Amino acid sequence: MKANKSGSEQKQKSESIGRRGFLALGSALAGSAMMGGKAAAADSYPPKDPDWSLMLGPGVVDRPYGQPSQFVKGVIRRNVPWLTATQESSVSFTPLQDQPGIITANGLFFERYHGGRATVDPAQHRLMIHGMLERPLLLTMDDIRRFPSVSRIHFIECPANGGMEWRAAQLNSLQFTHGMVSCAEWTGVKLSTLLDEVGLKKDAKWALVEGADAAHMDRSLPIEKCLDDVLVVYGQNGEALRPEQGFPLRLIVPGWQGNVNIKWLRRIQIGDQPWFTREETSKYTELMKDGTVRGFTWLIYAKSVITFPCPEKPLKGAGIYEIRGFAWSGKGKVTHVDVSTDGGVNWERAKLQDPVLPKALTRFTHEWRWDGKPTLLQSRCVDETGFVQPTISELRAVRGVNGIYNNNAIQTWQVKPDGSVYDVQLA
Amino acid sequence: MKANKSGSEQKQKSESIGRRGFLALGSALAGSAMMGGKAAAADSYPPKDPDWSLMLGPGVVDRPYGQPSQFVKGVIRRNVPWLTATQESSVSFTPLQDQPGIITANGLFFERYHGGRATVDPAQHRLMIHGMLERPLLLTMDDIRRFPSVSRIHFIECPANGGMEWRAAQLNSLQFTHGMVSCAEWTGVKLSTLLDEVGLKKDAKWALVEGADAAHMDRSLPIEKCLDDVLVVYGQNGEALRPEQGFPLRLIVPGWQGNVNIKWLRRIQIGDQPWFTREETSKYTELMKDGTVRGFTWLIYAKSVITFPCPEKPLKGAGIYEIRGFAWSGKGKVTHVDVSTDGGVNWERAKLQDPVLPKALTRFTHEWRWDGKPTLLQSRCVDETGFVQPTISELRAVRGVNGIYNNNAIQTWQVKPDGSVYDVQLA
């Protein structure tokens, strides 16, 4: 252990926002102060105990599976009723404004269904691997759990995350602009381990991956990605996959758009060309300015967003704040995040919080003294390949305005003098 | 992307357990095979869809906060009714045998109460910091959230974890031998940041930390630890702290025994000597062979356990298996884990799974060909300080047999020819 430091020595090592900044916070204990909701003489500690400090609470037997506090009921997934024709082929958004770290709580992980949430009996479920390979297989869940396992922390993002922003259909909400991204620790088998077991034939170039849901959601994946870092997972943040995430088995395609991370995975077919399924032709493609269509745009490029302050979490008067947010890139690790508090004129380097993992949400923080005047906040992610998150203008110049998918533009939050925060787009 | 590899090239890079080992798994697709629970001609894929693959599932509106699958209801916390006099001062054990990665699901995190689970209104809750300091403070939850924040993944272990093993009161269950350890991503404020704000006086040497529960659970902590890595946290795995874990505010004392990680934290008093509270005198001390008592034994030493196979997860016949488990150390990172499949005669180095983080659960795996004969499985953790996890005999030689706490001995699982697994102690 380090030697105890005197007060003056500690002052020298204090963070920049330390004693200068936060002295305005909290109530000094001179005179009376609030303790337990009622005024109490704080210099005669302890004051009268509040009720909740005197009641013996429930013991260990009433909640074999725990639940959040009754006081945080508002922290839930939300959907936008008009966004899709049906609720069975729709999306719910995670409350990113209330996510404290890089792990998304299993109960709050965003949902995207193409045929509703399938209910699959794991004892009956099978994974079939067939096509251009030496030894087609039909695997039970017990079989799959026998294979060598890995655990990885990765984000999943729907490419439609931010889609409403392309045309400025703004709901003034972080949850709705960026809530189709979540992050978890996944456990399962490398797809390369399974493909090694079945023995790919020489011309094997593509895999069709298919779900057991009513939509039989399917996508084509190049075999190089399958042999790289794709996982077939059954575990999520300390327990079995949640039904919303494809219980009992899903694909994790690290860094690639959500819809290829097939849920309720039941079939992998190996072939020598892509299948051009409905979900990679009529959907998940992008109409460009010149009338051509971009397809197979799997990769999630460098992206970031400020989660505090945001429309749901306004500021409370001038003073020092910690700006907080998440950054992520489908190409690997986040190298750094810059923050602008003047609409992109000046940029300062934010702190990254450990752990910084490839293709995972990465938390950043940045100390900021707000003078109470109106301003514009932005964050900009740079990943280990040197890719720099673009502005919405840069993105529109390349992609036009027909897009729904793959909006990784820098987000601008407008701060008004009363501390309220608005979703705006700079020209 | 890497170039596509032909089947023969892949074979060369296969893992040791690959094509040789797992060919026994799964059903080859020649002839008929099981798909969807009933026999189906697998060469005419797809076979008849099972019911669950044809039904449109619920949409995105029915579960704003999700729940585990109806098929995993047995994965729950469990308690031992006879272990404690009341259920309000007791413990529940996490189902470690079903934890796939290093993160423990919030709903399954082990519980330890001294006065039951407190129900605390965050709007009414206050943290008081007073004593030998320049500027005592009373902080609201909003105040605390304003301070610079950090996120860390750390385990918490009750020092009584494994306590029943000291006297061989064996329940033949991994959940009950090792289920008082869990691991989460915590978000909050460094205690050093708060102490820097209040300004410690020169003679400040100890902190009393106290909870708002009915037990007013309190412990003394040396100021060096408080200024090192202790956190005051409000976030847990993507959401607010769970009530079981001290909502809205708890202390995280990385690598130190669970009971000092005060839940429902309401008060920190700074002084120049320890308080010798009830929970550090009559409890959480160890009676040694010579009649003296060890106190203030905070540190969790290097420890590990095999989670597969285990009593709850037996083997299914001879063949190749992946042995899986967790290792942890309160002194820092796990450097390596050795596994013995012959009762400690020979040891082999296990693989560690990323991420390997200080004072966090670390997952290890080890491939093993079981010949179907009876044997003894063990794992042994070594941490970055060089500390080697001891045998139970080594531990008894030093500590005697009066102990309840701090049993970090190597665990032995006896495997019988039918694949069943038993908790045994070697002489």
Strand content of chain A: 25-35%
Number of helices of chain A: 7
Shape of chain A: globular
Please bin the fraction of helical residues of chain A: 10-25%
Going by CATH, the homologous superfamily of the largest domain in chain A would be Oxidoreductase, molybdopterin-binding domain
Q: Number of folding domains of chain A?
A: 2
CATH architecture of the largest domain in chain A: Alpha-Beta Complex
Chain oligomer state: homodimer
Largest interface: A-B, 157 and 158 residues
Folded structure, characterized:
The structure is a homodimer of 427-residue chains. By secondary structure, chain A is mainly beta. Residues 1-20 and 30-45 of chain A have low confidence and may be disordered. Chain A folds into two domains: 81-293, Sulfite Oxidase, Chain A, domain 2 (Alpha-Beta Complex); 303-424, Immunoglobulin-like (Sandwich), CATH 2.60.40. The first copy, chain A, has helices spanning 7-13, 18-21, 141-146, 174-178, 191-198, 223-228, 392-399; strands at residues 27-28, 32-35, 38-41, 91-92, 111-112, 126-131, 137-140, 150-157, 181-190, 206-211, 218-222, 231-236, 239-240, 250-252, 265-271, 286-287, 293-294, 303-308, 319-328, 334-340, 348-349, 351-352, 362-370, 375-383, 412-415, 421-424. In chain A, a hairpin with a 2-residue loop joins strand 2 and strand 3 (38-41). The first copy, chain A, is globular, with a radius of gyration of 25 Å. The relative contact order of chain A is 0.13. The termini of chain A are far apart. Chains A and B meet through helix 1, strand 1, strand 2, strand 4 and strand 6 of A and helix 1, strand 1, strand 2, strand 4 and strand 6 of B. Strand 7 (137-140) of chain A pairs antiparallel with strand 1 of chain B.
